[in-house]
Amino acid sequence: MRTFFHVDMDAFFVSVEELFDPTLKGKPVVVGGRPDERGVVSAASYAARKFGVHSAMPLRTAYQMCPQAIFVDGHPDRYREYSHKVHEVLQAFSPLVEMASIDEAYLDITGTERLYGPPLKAAHLLHERMKAATNLNCSIGIAASRLVAKISSDQAKPNGVLWIIPGQEAAFLAPLDVRKVPGVGKVTEKNLHAVGIRKVGDLARLDEAFLEQRFGKWGLALAGKSRGLDAGGWFDSEIGADEGPKSISHEHTFNEDTADLDRIESTLARLSEMVGRRLREHKLQARTLQLKLRYSDFSTITRAHSVPRPTDLDTEIFEEIRELFRRNWKAGATVRLLGVHAAGWAEGGEQMDLLGEARHEKWKQTLAAADRMRDKFGESAVSLASSLRGKFRERTHENPASLPGKKPT
DNA sequence: TCTGGGGTCCTAGGACCC
DNA sequence: TCTGGGGTCCTAGGACCC
Description:
CATH architecture of the domain at 247-387: 2-Layer Sandwich
CATH class of the domain at 247-387: Alpha Beta
Largest sheet: 5 strands, mixed
Helix content: 40-55%
Strand order of the largest sheet: 5-6-1-7-8
Mean pLDDT: 89
Distance between the termini: 62 Å
Radius of gyration: 24 Å
Number of helices: 16
Shape: globular
Number of strands: 12
CATH topology of the domain at 247-387: Dna Ligase, domain 1
């Protein structure tokens, strides 16, 4: 029998913003951007939630529901910084920590009774330490499985601690909506409602064979979840196994849809650069490059190509992406979103021919210099977008100031 | 309601190979 | 020739999470 904590920071982005601007405290606050921008709510304060505002809601809708809310831009650097602080507090408490996202973590605290006392006491101690070290509130769920710990931290919100005593899992879960089960989203919820399943208890009562026949492999996993088991999928893996990213991507939604090829290709160049930089940061080389293209009507396609030689170079990424774009764009159709995605890491440095090697080296040095500039002067200090375009496009005349992401110098 | 950005995992068909 | 079966890779799409 093991004991897990699920630690979840309360209204994390909003709370961090409040640390930087205490006048926000207690007010309806929406993090995500201005209300006239395209975008969705990243986080809403509890005061804003009272008006029905919640994360993933379009900013424009949030504004209609709560026009008096204060809309602030997100600050990813701040959240990363505080996420590190949270991680440090947790790491000092128990070595078996796994950050599940920027604002939540699992701890395996099995066998810490002598150090911290019973689980509930240990959780309260951790809760106090978190507040003292970060000035942030969190909620902690305690259970014998990670799944139940996660669901119980959600029930404990805000700023609470909840322990599901071993043996009580089914009784705790039964009255909850199926939607509370991690992995059950809008679609699965609808499918379950269609066969009369609304509560986790309804699920638990059903025959496993019926669920498997109706929902496949996923149905079998659901049967286990309804009984509070980690069995199957992500919840099964060991805590603390950090494996690094499996894919790296960047995308951009235009504030107004565009069919301007110049704008489109310079955006693809910028996204390619961003992906290339992250690949080099992680010392990864990608074999598969993927373009994402969303039109004005929100219809979305992805087109991938696997290259014979894995790459981490902006130029090579852009070449592939631009080719994919040219082959697949319904010419003239207005574009809402563009994305560049890299995956399929090289096993171990594959050989290239001498000519490729020399060309590769040259770009490597150029890009390393650009990376250093960005480290020193900020992300927007350097953009190779114009040089990429000069190299690969017929037209070379550009107004550099018009390139997205590039500050006029 | 008019829908971000960065991820993970799963499914499914076709190519290709043995 | 009238047609197996398994494994793996590639590609496209979609559900879901924070």
